[in-house]
Amino acid sequence: MNDQSVNELEGIITKKYTNIAGIVALKKRVVCYEKYFNQCVASSRIHVYSVAKSIISILIGIAIDQGHIESINQKVLEFFPDYVVKKREKTLQNVTLKDMLTMTAPYKYRFPPYTYIRYFMSEDWVKFSLDLLGGKGKIGDFRYTPLVGPDILSAILTKSTGNSLLEFANENLFIPLGISVKGNVVLHTAKEQSAFNKATNISGWVVDNAGTNSGGWGLTLSAFDMAKIGQLCLNNGVWGDKRIVSGEWINETTQVHSQWDKTKMKYGYLWWIIDEKEGVYSAMGDGGNVIYVNTEREIVISIASLYKPKVEDRIEFIKEYIEPLLIDEN
Known about the structure:
Layout: H1 3-16, E1 20-27, E2 30-36, E3 46-47, H2 51-65, H3 91-94, H4 97-101, H5 118-121, H6 125-132, H7 148-161, H8 165-174, E4 183-186, H9 190-198, E5 204-207, E6 220-221, H10 223-234, E7 238-239, E8 242-243, H11 247-253, E9 258-260, E10 265-267, E11 272-275, E12 280-285, E13 289-294, E14 299-305, H12 314-327
Parallel strand pairs: 4-5
Antiparallel strand pairs: 1-2, 1-14, 3-6, 7-8, 9-10, 10-11, 11-12, 12-13, 13-14
Helix pairs in contact: 2-7, 6-7
């Protein structure tokens, strides 16, 4: 990017996208732009919220590659043999991993229970989630669940691999990519959670009181960490000379499998599908945290953002202001 383009881009950021902590843009594996804002630096670790979901998807693929999980068509309850199903609860018994990955599993609540702190106050987020899964809804209808579904996937990874989610992720994904996620984070109070959301110096992944890592939030990463995840996917699961996850899984997870009719947004396996023709997909988290991958143009863009409600659309920002600068480069 030339100086004029950079100055114009950063002027837009400071006026309209004021909570951005860092941006990394890669084209054909080369860093074309890297910049940090709001007193953040390259080593700053940001709570990336639902970006964690897409990482869960990669970890599910690795677990399948290694034979820990037989198939995404397995029933969820196969992994929880001690869970007692309530009488007349038949839907839950038929929910599969694929239903969870595509956000097409039904739940028994009308409004997210965590809005009323019930989720965060529960001792065991996985049991809390299983108790809400199923009901009278129809399997196959898209229902985006920010927290409760991914926690079940976290527990499935733990039960199938014999390691905690963080241990499995560190050994098989983070450490091979040079990503540091130092340990579990325990949040005892709402005040601690609020501080965690705003922090830039905590490296870890949140756990509940039962020791299960959260599946859909609670992970801190740097902007460059996120760019590495995107580049791994662009490389079809290969990092350097090492295969991290099968190319078949990367291809499958970034295809359209469901759609949120309310927003017309398409969904893969815990990845948002932006453009099927160009092979553009994205991990997206609250506050404007994004991993954006354009396979046709070999572009990866990551944005780490400090939490702020109702932020400007980051995909629109990327497509309008960042991607064109990369495409126009020789």
